[in-house]
Amino acid sequence: MRAILLLILAYPFLEVASLVYMADHFGGGFVLGWVVVSALIGVLMLRNQKVGALLTLGAVLRKPGEVSLYGLLWPLRFLLAGVLFLIPGFISDVLAVLLLLPLKGPSLKVPPAGGFGGAGGQSGPAGDGAIEGEYTRVDETVDPDRRLHK
Fold first, then answer.
1. What is the distance between the alpha carbons of residues 98 and 48, in angstroms, rounded to a whole number?
2. CB–CB of 75/52 below 8 Å?
3. DSSP string covering 65-100, please?
4. Transmembrane segments in this chain: where (predicted)?
5. Is the pLDDT confidence value at 132 over 60?
6. Residue ranges of the alpha helices (H) in the chain?
7. Alpha-carbon span 89 to 99, nearest angstrom
8. Coil vs helix vs strand at 20
9. pLDDT at site 121
10. How far from the centroid of its chain's Cα atoms is residue 30's Cα?
11. pLDDT for residue 22
């Protein structure tokens, strides 16, 4: 827990140190241009977030049979990448680019659109919605002296 807290507290200092290092290495004009361009990219990403999330969700749900967990989380990753692009610094830009990589994660099995029972939502042989099976009733005998009320 302390390591996470120290990392959160050290993050702004690491961003400033990376900006100073890059300015010393490449020049101040390049770093200023980089920060402005990355902020514009972040603003554009956040501006188009709502429509993109709806389109992504619609495309993921149209695929029959399997849905990728990373596909469902894509709008959230895209939003977080836009926020990271808005933060001035090279570390946040690298993290944003890593979030935007098209990773294909594990897929989740999804039942068919007709329902859980099979093709067209038919559960039984006649398609009446009945679930066939066997059962046995088991009643435990209770001693009358152990009852709470009489």
1. 20
2. yes
3. SEEEHHHHTHHHHHHHHHHHHHS-SHHHHHHHHHHT
4. 28-46, 79-101
5. yes
6. 2-26, 28-47, 49-62, 69-72, 74-86, 90-99
7. 16
8. helix
9. 46
10. 34
11. 92
Instruction: Tell me the pLDDT band of 97, cut-offs 50, 70 and 90.
Output: very high
Structure tokens at 41: 């990219």
Size (the chain), residues = 150
93: how many CB neighbours lie within 10 A of its CB? 22
Q: Is this structure's pTM higher than 0.70?
A: no
Which pLDDT score, from 0 to 100, does residue 96 have? 93
> Would you call 49 exposed, middle or buried from its count of C-beta atoms within 10 A (0-12, 13-18, 19+)?
middle
Residue with tokens 């507290």: 9
The residue written with tokens 């099976």 in the block is 133
Q: Token pair of 40, please?
A: 């514009």
Is 107 in a helix, a strand, or coil?
Answer: strand
Q: Which two tokens mark 37?
A: 């361009």
Tokens linked to 53: 């999330």
Among 1-10, 29-38, 60-69, which range has the highest average pLDDT? 29-38
pLDDT for 15 equals: 92
> Comparing 120 with 65, which gets the higher pLDDT?
65
